[in-house]
Amino acid sequence: MTQPTHRASVKVTIMIDPSQLVEKVRNIKPLSEATRKLLVLMGQPDHQIQDLVRIVEHEPALTANVLRVANSATFALNRKLATLAEAASYLGYMHIVGIALATSGQDVFNAELKGYDGSRGDLGRHCLWTALAAKELANLTDDRVYQGLAFTSGLLHDIGKVVISDFLPEYAEEMEQRLQTSQVSDYITAEREVLGTDHCAVGGLLAEHWQLPESLQMGIAYHHSPQEADEEWQPTAFVVHLADMMAMMSGNGTGVDAILYGLDSRYSEFVTITPEQLEPMMLDLQLEFERTAPLLFD
Amino acid sequence: MKMHTIGTGEYGVMFGEGKLLKTRPLGAGVAVIIQDIKSKTSGLVHVALPDSHLAPERARDNPGYFADTPIPILLEAFADSGLKRDPSDYTVKLVGGANVIDRHRAFDLGTRVVNAVKETLETCKLKVAAQEVGGRFSRSVTIHVESGEVEMIAPGRESKFI
């Protein structure tokens, strides 16, 4: 980790102290090895549930959590699932990755986000809503985005907020002034202008700190500027961009910035969606979210 | 204070002292508030989508989600509480409907929900007394049931009574 910008193509001038920023990223607890391996696996197009089981079984705490969730009242099974393989097959990759991140990345996903005026748990819930939406939107990309990558990128997309949040209170007045007087059109521009960086670039740094693959770094670092992602990963970045917006539209934002972002209309080159498709999807996602969130982030 | 939170697609009617009726953050959704000031009774629904006809099966299980289904149900709930009134006796307020600008239309959901709610209110002969809708920030609502005050809350902003 050398500088607080994710890639050379993202031009930012750091106004907050770069060494402090890097220090804060470095101080974030690394993910467990099993969680990191699961995320790397999800960044690849082909994986079987057995591959996930082989990773999870090396971590007793994670194995116990997977079994706990599978046997929870939410699923109301008529028999107890005793083995990890059974539980993993029943839950599927989404729950496994969600449980791993909620356990190992608790410091991030359960952070309070004071700088965004968010509450504890808001980030985890927002990221889960985004992940569920990204998984569905991947189906509308003509096979250009695979579901596992979309889901996992959605779960991770806002991790940079944990770092940025600590710097925001000092600049809150300036941020507010620019937004209220319409000097800037959205929250990400305000972050860039006032702080000299933004939660996407810092999220890219944290993804690097966590040794996540490029496929996941792209969805994180470019979810508000998807057209700037490397061409190969633009469809994924657009899917996360839209899914993030849908989560905010559902009311599951992270605080003061909710909906204060622009929508890149070039999404139509990557995702085909009409109002008639979006509306029932919003309902199905909200119902799925309400079933899943208490298992992971409440 | 006794507080009751209405989730997305839920609705409720409340009266009496020391009670708060509130929504979660609304996003593109709209809080429809129907009040009978005389009896200090407030009804609230958190509408998330404009049109139940797009998903009739889901609407049967979740009528509160759609703009065209829960308002008549709320009025029935008022009537069931012995408060059958003329539509002009009710005070109606709207909050929410934050919008995303999308030239392809799919994501401009907030505007569609607000318009659909207003159409339903018109059909029910209910007039909107006050509203805080649109814009690009998410709000939530807290109703102080006894006084009938409707407080609009948005992160990073001062709360406002409408």
Structure characterization notes:
The complex is a heterodimer of chains A (298) and B (162). By secondary structure, chain A is mainly α. Chain A contains 14 helices and no strands. Chain A has helices spanning 18-27, 33-42, 49-56, 60-70, 84-104, 106-109, 122-138, 147-156, 161-180, 187-195, 199-209, 214-221, 234-249, 275-296. The longest helix of chain A has 22 residues, at 275-296. Chain B is α+β, with helices and mostly antiparallel strands and 162 residues long. Chain B has a single domain (2-161), classed as 2-Layer Sandwich (60s Ribosomal Protein L30, Chain: A). Chain B has three helices and ten strands, in the order E-E-E-E-E-H-H-E-H-E-E-E-E. Chain B has helices spanning 56-61, 70-80, 109-123; strands at 2-6, 11-15, 19-23, 30-36, 41-47, 91-96, 128-133, 140-144, 149-153, 160-161. A five-stranded mixed β-sheet of chain B has the order 1-3-8-9-10, with no helix packed on it. In chain B, strand 9 and strand 10 form a beta hairpin. Chain B starts with a strand and ends with a strand. The A-B interface holds A 116-118, 172, 176, 242, 245-246, 248-253, 255-256, 258-260, 262-263, 265, 267-268, 273-280, 282-284, 286-287, 290 and B 7-9, 24-29, 48-51, 54-55, 58, 62, 65, 98-107, 109-110, 112, 136-138, 155-156.
What brief labels describe this structure?
heterodimer; A: 298 residues; 59% helix; disordered N terminus; B: 60s Ribosomal Protein L30, Chain: A; 5-stranded mixed beta sheet; 3 helices; 10 strands; 20% helix
